[in-house]
Amino acid sequence: MLQIDQLSYWEKTTYFDGFDAVIIGAGIVGLSTAIAIKKRHPNWRILILEKGYLPSGASTKNAGFACFGSPSELFDDLKNNSENQVWETFNLRYEGLKTLFQLIDPQKIDYLPCGSYDLIKLNEEEINLDFINYLNSESKKITHKNNTFLIENNPGEKFGFNGIKCAYFNSLEGSLHTGKLIEQLHQKAIQLGITILFGIECQGYESSELGLLLALNIGEMKADRLIICSNGFASQLIDEDVVPARAQVLITKPIANLQLESTFHMDKGYYYFRTINNRILLGGGRNTDITGETTTAIETTENIQAVLKTLLKEVILPNQSFEIDYAWSGIMGIGASKQPIIKKISPNVYAGVRMGGMGVAIGAAVGQQLSELID
Ligand SMILES: Cc1cc2nc3c(=O)[nH]c(=O)nc-3n(C[C@H](O)[C@H](O)[C@H](O)COP(=O)(O)OP(=O)(O)OC[C@H]3O[C@@H](n4cnc5c(N)ncnc54)[C@H](O)[C@@H]3O)c2cc1C
């Protein structure tokens, strides 16, 4: 590949010189951060560097759930995190969606406020009514809405599922088109005059009195500020608690008479499914092989895909035949805490990483908060 020191004067000065901020990663967070910075500093020159020919982490791979916590996931989160942290994250998800919809028209990304069902299997412990009441009163402090969470007693009969005894409905959740979301953010960034270059990897950086020097796969460039939005790949550049977590999904071929106009979660959020153009998109199962799925390798594996197919066959579509059309994976960034890292790392270096399984909801708010830290 052509190196920076082989470029023409025009190329070098247009694409690699004089940027006020260089952002690493063109996912939801990188794009949202660039847009938020440009709005605060209209005269700044902003460059986004993306290592893939498309964004190559999670933002073009995800399931498109605009979600902020199923009851069984929140129940589990409250066991492992403080109450404050759990509701702060819920708030970030709620505010994040509002921020996203101020940036882009929900209709342009096929947003459907269809709600979600958290399905409880026959052998699983039910969540008691007191806990649902608690969720409703705490979530109301954030959303000002009554009865966000409701008990649905007969989801098996309603949707034709097998082995499901009850469900909890969350009226605030919804679904959207993942590809259209990233395309809209991309177009918004371009309209604002942000430069985006694909196929360029940042392999490291050095700070000196002369400024920041970025080591790229095509040579070196200087930057006034570096903003790391590389999520699951962040440990390549910074020493923070972020580890890669691969997530796999599959999509069936179109199925006749599919009547599942909602989004669904199971097993504390470890499985999720929805419809898209008469197909079922199903993801999850990384809890069955945590070690194997702690990787940045964008591949699918037979064992996880088999777990997903079994779930489809035995629980979701027990009375229907189906064929798999697509299967893929993406890389999330997770850590001991579920909260994202939004911080100044060192002078002129910032990071917005560790989005877990909720970047669709929180990404725009993270970009906004990160932009406010940058001086
Ligand atoms: C299968 C799957 C399903 C999911 N489902 C949902 C869901 O339904 N709802 C939800 O809210 N969340 C979901 N998520 C999580 C969500 O997609 C992420 O939280 C979100 O996309 C993170 O956005 P990001 O911009 O931080 O990271 P990313 O989208 O991963 O962006 C980081 C970018 O940085 C680039 N990069 C990395 N290192 C470098 C480098 N050194 N130089 C240059 N570029 C670099 C990567 O190629 C990548 O494009 C899912 C994730 C997966 C994988």
In CATH terms, the superfamily of the largest domain is FAD/NAD(P)-binding domain
Instruction: Give, in spatial order, the strands making up the sheet with the most strands.
Output: 5-6-4-14-15-16-13-17
Which ligands are bound? flavin-adenine dinucleotide
Helix content: 25-40%
Structural class: alpha/beta
Q: Can you tag this structure with a few keywords?
A:
binds flavin-adenine dinucleotide, 31% helix, globular, eight-stranded mixed sheet, 3 domains, 375 residues, FAD/NAD(P)-binding domain, single chain, 19 strands, D-Amino Acid Oxidase, Chain A, domain 2, alpha/beta, 27% strand, six-stranded mixed sheet, 9 helices
Short description:
The protein is of the alpha/beta class and 375 residues long. It has three domains: 4-61 and 179-242 and 337-373, 3-Layer(bba) Sandwich (FAD/NAD(P)-binding domain); 68-85 and 105-174, no CATH class; 243-334, D-Amino Acid Oxidase, Chain A, domain 2. The chain has helices at residues 9-15, 28-40, 71-80, 83-103, 129-143, 155-159, 178-191, 302-316, 359-373; strands spanning 21-24, 46-50, 65-66, 116-121, 149-152, 164-170, 174-175, 195-198, 202-208, 211-216, 219-223, 226-228, 243-252, 263-266, 271-276, 279-284, 324-334, 341-346, 349-353.
Give a structural overview:
The protein is of the alpha/beta class. It has 3 domains: 159 residues, FAD/NAD(P)-binding domain; 88 residues, no CATH class; 92 residues, D-Amino Acid Oxidase, Chain A, domain 2. The protein is 31% helix and 27% strand. The chain has 9 helices and 19 strands. The strands form 4 sheets. Strands 5-6-4-14-15-16-13-17 form an 8-stranded mixed sheet, with helices on both faces. Strands 8-2-1-12-19-18 form a 6-stranded mixed sheet, covered by helices on one side. A 3-stranded antiparallel sheet has the order 9-10-11, with no helix packed on it. α2 runs parallel beside α7. The longest helix is centred in the N-terminal third of the chain and has 21 residues. It is globular. The mean pLDDT is 95. The site of flavin-adenine dinucleotide has 42 residues, from α2, β2, β13, β17 and α9.
